[in-house]
Design goal:
Elements lengths: L1 E3 L2 E3 L2 E3 L6 E5 L6 E6 L3 H20 L2 H17 L1 H11 L4 H24 L3 E4 L2 E7 L2 E5 L5 H15 L2 E5 L5 H13 L7 E3 L4 H10 L5 E5 L2 H11 L5 E5 L5 E4 L5 H13 L11 E5 L3 H15 L18 H16 L3 E4 L16 E4 L6 H4 L6 E7 L2 H9 L7 E4 L2 H8 L7 E3 L17 E2 L4 H6 L2 E7 L5
Parallel strand pairs: 1-5, 8-9, 8-11, 9-10, 11-12, 13-14, 13-18, 14-17, 16-17, 18-19
Antiparallel strand pairs: 2-3, 4-5, 6-7, 7-21, 12-20, 15-16
Helix pairs in contact: 1-7, 2-4, 2-5, 2-6, 3-4, 3-6, 4-5, 9-10
């Protein structure tokens, strides 16, 4: 059994002050496959001190120097992309197509940040003033288990592009991915203290980072409940905060849609990352007059095309839940759906036949109304709820009737879909299955978060403008 016993502080792999060992599981089998030694508040203090020492030199680095750092980090991650994919498969269980995408995304994040920085003016003239964009300072980066390596690399890439130094708290459930990333980034040869990594629980390491007076900004991806706690804890020192939180995304199918053409996209939106995605389109809105036809075709497509099983099998489209706790959470919501009076269209409680581990039966409920908990609360598993609407106005009202606003999906005639998209309260709307754009801003409205990541908006989240009055022209 593998034991991960080191964290990364001040350019070195070191043993943490903390002593707790946390079990790592293979979610496809439920077996314990390793342990990670967790850090504590003393480790956070050491990491923040290292980042603070490294900050003055990092903040003075030119755009060209930061670009070289990002290029080195990209090359280092590319060299380990196969190893990272294997770690994702083993400890998270994403289907191999998704695991490969995750590994590629982690490496590619550094190129996206480099492209953004290369085109971004760090100084500009505004009227008679010169405005200089300076790094916000030491930043705390806290990442989730559903895409741990990708979030580490993406957040770190934009922090470095801005000239910040960082303390990273990755998910303790994703320690194998973190270990691969740590070794890869170390090979890039960045100055000591520019980034530091402390494994640990959110209640210990995450809380210590959030409360630390020398941390100027927090970037957190995770649950809305934890995001609210971070805002409260950051208030005393007025930290800058970027939060990418939960979602309950609507998928609107217009009444002119070709079901054969759009149902694969509906399934992908709802079951992506085995349903463990904050952007998953789990509220499916369909016209009343086409409800029966849609339900029949969706049920048939899921039962024929959605394969649950071994993440390494290229035919698998839905892998296991990350943990026993998450599996039990999804089971509770499936029971709740039936108790609330929703009609089970396919799936249900328990594991798919012949599978152990933390596998869930892909489940769809019909006859759902927007007051039911399965339509309002984030389940974070492969569970869809079908709701009906009367007309376009009704569809928009139902879609916007949520405390979340992270993502949304619209399928149908392009002009009508764009008209609907403009009316949705969401940080992102995907029209007719359009591809992800890594340079576009990503984040949510309402209780789905604060601020944006990626591209120019993501870079500016790590920058503070300084106005110089009376300075000579550059």
């Amino acid at each position: 059994m593998r034991v991960i016993e080191q964290i990364y502080i001040d350019g070195k792999f070191v043993e943490p002050h903390g002593h707790e060992l946390f079990d790592l599981h293979n979610p496809a089998t439920g077996e314990v496959i390793g342990q990670v030694r967790l850090g504590d508040a003393e480790d956070v203090n050491a990491a923040v001190a290292a980042a603070k020492r490294a900050l003055p030199a990092m903040a003075r680095r030119s755009k060209a120097e930061r670009l070289k750092m990002l290029e080195a980090l990209h090359a280092a991650m590319r060299a380990h992309v196969d190893e990272l994919r294997e770690a994702v498969l083993e400890e998270y269980g994403a289907p191999i197509s998704r695991s490969s995408w995750m590994a590629d995304y982690a490496a590619g994040s550094f190129l996206s940040a480099a492209q953004t920085l290369a085109e971004y003016p760090l100084e500009r003239e505004i009227g008679s003033a010169r405005v200089v964009m300076e790094p916000v300072g030491v930043v705390g980066l806290i990442t989730p288990w559903n895409s741990n390596a990708g979030f580490i690399c993406n957040k770190l890439a934009y922090a470095i592009a801005a000239g910040c130094t960082a303390v990273i708290k990755p998910s303790e459930m994703s320690a194998m991915q973190t270990e691969v990333v740590q070794r890869a980034l170390h090979e890039a040869g960045l100055p000591a203290g520019v980034y530091n990594v402390v494994n640990g629980r959110g209640a210990d390491v995450g809380a210590a980072i959030t409360a630390h007076p020398d941390v100027a900004k927090i970037s957190f991806t995770g649950s809305t409940a934890v995001g609210k706690a971070i805002v409260r804890a950051s208030a005393d020192s007025l930290k800058r905060v970027t939060l990418e939180l939960g979602g309950k995304s609507p998928t609107i199918i217009l009444d002119d849609a070709d079901f054969d053409a759009v149902i694969p996209g509906v399934i992908e939106a709802g079951f992506m990352n085995s349903g463990q995605a904050c952007v998953a389109g789990t509220r499916v809105l369909v016209s009343e007059r086409r409800r029966a036809e849609f339900e029949a075709r969706l049920k048939s497509a899921i039962e024929a095309r959605v394969k649950v099983g071994d993440p390494r099998d290229p035919a698998t489209t839905v892998g296991p839940m990350v943990s026993q706790t998450q599996w039990e959470r999804v089971q509770r919501y499936i029971r709740l759906g039936r108790e609330e009076g929703a009609r089970l269209l396919t799936g249900g409680e328990g594991r798919p036949e012949g599978l152990g581990g933390y596998f869930v039966r892909p489940t769809v409920f019909a006859d759902v109304n927007n007051d039911m908990r399965i339509a309002r609360e984030e389940i974070f598993g492969p569970v869809l709820a079908i709701l009906t609407y009367r007309d376009e106005d009704d569809a928009v009202v139902i879609a916007n009737d949520t405390s979340y606003g992270l993502s949304a999906y619209v399928f149908g005639d392009q002009a009508r879909a764009e008209r609907i998209a403009a009316r949705l309260d969401s940080g992102r709307v995907v029209i007719n299955g359009a591809a992800h754009e890594p340079l576009a801003p990503f984040g949510g409205t309402k209780q789905s978060g604060l601020g944006r990541e990626n591209g120019t908006f993501g870079l500016e989240a790590y920058l503070e403008p300084k106005t110089l009055l009376g300075a000579s022209a550059a």
